[in-house]
Amino acid sequence: MKIKVVVTLKNGVLDPQGKAIQQTLNGMGYSNIQGVRQGKYFDLEIAENDEAKAKVAAEEMCKKLLANLVIEDFKIL
Amino acid sequence: MKIKVVVTLKNGVLDPQGKAIQQTLNGMGYSNIQGVRQGKYFDLEIAENDEAKAKVAAEEMCKKLLANLVIEDFKIL
What we know:
CATH architecture of chain A: 2-Layer Sandwich
Number of domains of chain A: 1
CATH class of chain A: Alpha Beta
Order of helices and strands of chain A: EHEHE
Helix content of chain A: 25-40%
CATH superfamily of chain A: Phosphoribosylformylglycinamidine synthase subunit PurS
Largest interface: A-B, 31 and 31 residues
Strand content of chain A: 35-45%
Strand order of the largest sheet of chain A: 2-1-3
Low-confidence stretches of chain A: none
CATH topology of chain A: Mth169, Chain: A
Shape of chain A: elongated
Mean pLDDT of chain A: 96
Oligomer: homodimer
Protein backbone atom coordinates (compact mmCIF):
# COMPACT_ATOMS: atom_id res chain seq x y z
CA MET A 1 0.00 0.00 0.00
CA LYS A 2 0.94 3.60 -0.48
CA ILE A 3 1.90 5.74 2.52
CA LYS A 4 2.33 9.49 2.17
CA VAL A 5 4.78 11.33 4.36
CA VAL A 6 5.43 15.05 4.74
CA VAL A 7 8.65 16.34 6.31
CA THR A 8 8.69 20.01 7.30
CA LEU A 9 11.18 22.29 9.02
CA LYS A 10 10.40 22.95 12.66
CA ASN A 11 9.07 26.36 13.63
CA GLY A 12 11.93 28.71 14.24
CA VAL A 13 14.29 27.00 11.80
CA LEU A 14 15.22 29.43 9.03
CA ASP A 15 13.95 28.53 5.57
CA PRO A 16 15.79 30.66 3.00
CA GLN A 17 14.32 28.65 0.12
CA GLY A 18 10.78 29.35 1.32
CA LYS A 19 11.67 33.00 1.81
CA ALA A 20 12.96 33.22 -1.77
CA ILE A 21 9.73 31.70 -3.08
CA GLN A 22 7.72 34.17 -1.01
CA GLN A 23 9.67 37.13 -2.38
CA THR A 24 9.26 35.86 -5.93
CA LEU A 25 5.50 35.45 -5.45
CA ASN A 26 5.28 38.94 -3.94
CA GLY A 27 7.23 40.27 -6.91
CA MET A 28 4.82 38.54 -9.29
CA GLY A 29 1.98 40.55 -7.77
CA TYR A 30 0.76 38.12 -5.11
CA SER A 31 1.15 40.67 -2.34
CA ASN A 32 -1.12 38.72 0.02
CA ILE A 33 1.46 35.97 0.53
CA GLN A 34 2.83 36.48 4.02
CA GLY A 35 4.98 33.44 4.31
CA VAL A 36 6.12 30.28 2.52
CA ARG A 37 7.75 27.25 4.12
CA GLN A 38 9.05 24.47 1.93
CA GLY A 39 9.13 20.84 2.96
CA LYS A 40 9.57 17.41 1.45
CA TYR A 41 6.98 14.88 0.43
CA PHE A 42 7.45 11.12 0.04
CA ASP A 43 5.24 8.47 -1.51
CA LEU A 44 6.28 5.13 -0.04
CA GLU A 45 5.07 1.94 -1.72
CA ILE A 46 5.15 -0.68 1.03
CA ALA A 47 4.43 -4.38 0.51
CA GLU A 48 2.09 -4.57 3.49
CA ASN A 49 -1.69 -4.84 3.48
CA ASP A 50 -2.26 -3.80 7.09
CA GLU A 51 -2.47 0.00 7.13
CA ALA A 52 -1.56 0.30 10.82
CA LYS A 53 1.59 -1.80 10.33
CA ALA A 54 2.56 0.14 7.22
CA LYS A 55 2.22 3.42 9.13
CA VAL A 56 4.34 2.12 12.01
CA ALA A 57 7.03 1.09 9.50
CA ALA A 58 6.84 4.50 7.79
CA GLU A 59 7.22 6.26 11.12
CA GLU A 60 10.32 4.22 11.88
CA MET A 61 11.81 5.06 8.46
CA CYS A 62 11.11 8.75 9.03
CA LYS A 63 12.94 8.66 12.34
CA LYS A 64 15.90 6.74 10.93
CA LEU A 65 16.32 8.22 7.46
CA LEU A 66 13.73 10.53 5.96
CA ALA A 67 13.64 13.29 8.58
CA ASN A 68 16.38 15.01 10.53
CA LEU A 69 14.57 15.28 13.86
CA VAL A 70 16.92 17.98 15.13
CA ILE A 71 15.44 20.50 12.69
CA GLU A 72 12.51 18.70 11.05
CA ASP A 73 9.10 17.29 11.94
CA PHE A 74 7.32 14.59 10.00
CA LYS A 75 3.71 13.67 9.50
CA ILE A 76 2.27 10.45 8.07
CA LEU A 77 -0.79 11.41 5.99
CA MET B 1 -4.97 31.34 6.23
CA LYS B 2 -2.63 28.46 5.59
CA ILE B 3 -2.83 26.50 2.35
CA LYS B 4 -0.86 23.29 1.89
CA VAL B 5 0.36 22.26 -1.53
CA VAL B 6 2.04 19.08 -2.69
CA VAL B 7 3.96 18.94 -5.97
CA THR B 8 4.85 15.48 -7.27
CA LEU B 9 6.53 14.14 -10.37
CA LYS B 10 4.14 12.77 -12.97
CA ASN B 11 3.93 9.02 -13.41
CA GLY B 12 6.55 7.92 -15.88
CA VAL B 13 9.00 10.69 -15.03
CA LEU B 14 12.20 9.18 -13.65
CA ASP B 15 12.91 9.98 -9.99
CA PRO B 16 16.55 9.06 -9.25
CA GLN B 17 16.38 10.71 -5.82
CA GLY B 18 13.40 8.56 -4.84
CA LYS B 19 15.18 5.50 -6.23
CA ALA B 20 18.26 6.26 -4.10
CA ILE B 21 16.08 6.57 -1.00
CA GLN B 22 14.40 3.27 -1.83
CA GLN B 23 17.74 1.49 -2.23
CA THR B 24 18.99 2.96 1.04
CA LEU B 25 15.85 1.81 2.87
CA ASN B 26 16.17 -1.65 1.32
CA GLY B 27 19.80 -1.72 2.42
CA MET B 28 18.76 -0.77 5.96
CA GLY B 29 16.62 -3.91 6.10
CA TYR B 30 13.27 -2.51 4.97
CA SER B 31 12.95 -5.03 2.18
CA ASN B 32 9.21 -4.45 1.85
CA ILE B 33 9.71 -1.01 0.30
CA GLN B 34 8.88 -1.41 -3.36
CA GLY B 35 9.09 2.20 -4.45
CA VAL B 36 9.71 5.74 -3.26
CA ARG B 37 8.80 8.94 -5.09
CA GLN B 38 9.92 12.24 -3.71
CA GLY B 39 7.98 15.46 -4.12
CA LYS B 40 7.82 18.96 -2.71
CA TYR B 41 5.56 20.38 -0.07
CA PHE B 42 4.69 24.05 0.46
CA ASP B 43 2.95 25.81 3.33
CA LEU B 44 1.56 29.08 1.98
CA GLU B 45 0.43 31.74 4.45
CA ILE B 46 -2.12 33.80 2.52
CA ALA B 47 -3.77 36.97 3.85
CA GLU B 48 -7.25 35.86 2.80
CA ASN B 49 -10.07 34.62 5.02
CA ASP B 50 -12.15 33.02 2.28
CA GLU B 51 -10.85 29.45 1.87
CA ALA B 52 -12.20 29.06 -1.66
CA LYS B 53 -10.47 32.25 -2.82
CA ALA B 54 -7.22 31.26 -1.12
CA LYS B 55 -7.28 27.90 -2.89
CA VAL B 56 -7.91 29.51 -6.26
CA ALA B 57 -4.94 31.82 -5.65
CA ALA B 58 -2.77 28.87 -4.58
CA GLU B 59 -3.74 26.97 -7.74
CA GLU B 60 -2.72 29.94 -9.86
CA MET B 61 0.63 30.19 -8.05
CA CYS B 62 1.24 26.48 -8.61
CA LYS B 63 0.63 26.84 -12.32
CA LYS B 64 2.83 29.92 -12.63
CA LEU B 65 5.70 29.18 -10.26
CA LEU B 66 5.59 26.25 -7.86
CA ALA B 67 5.08 23.37 -10.27
CA ASN B 68 6.60 22.59 -13.66
CA LEU B 69 3.48 21.22 -15.34
CA VAL B 70 5.49 19.50 -18.06
CA ILE B 71 6.80 16.95 -15.57
CA GLU B 72 4.94 17.65 -12.32
CA ASP B 73 1.43 17.51 -10.91
CA PHE B 74 0.23 19.54 -7.96
CA LYS B 75 -2.46 19.04 -5.37
CA ILE B 76 -3.93 21.62 -2.98
CA LEU B 77 -4.55 19.81 0.34
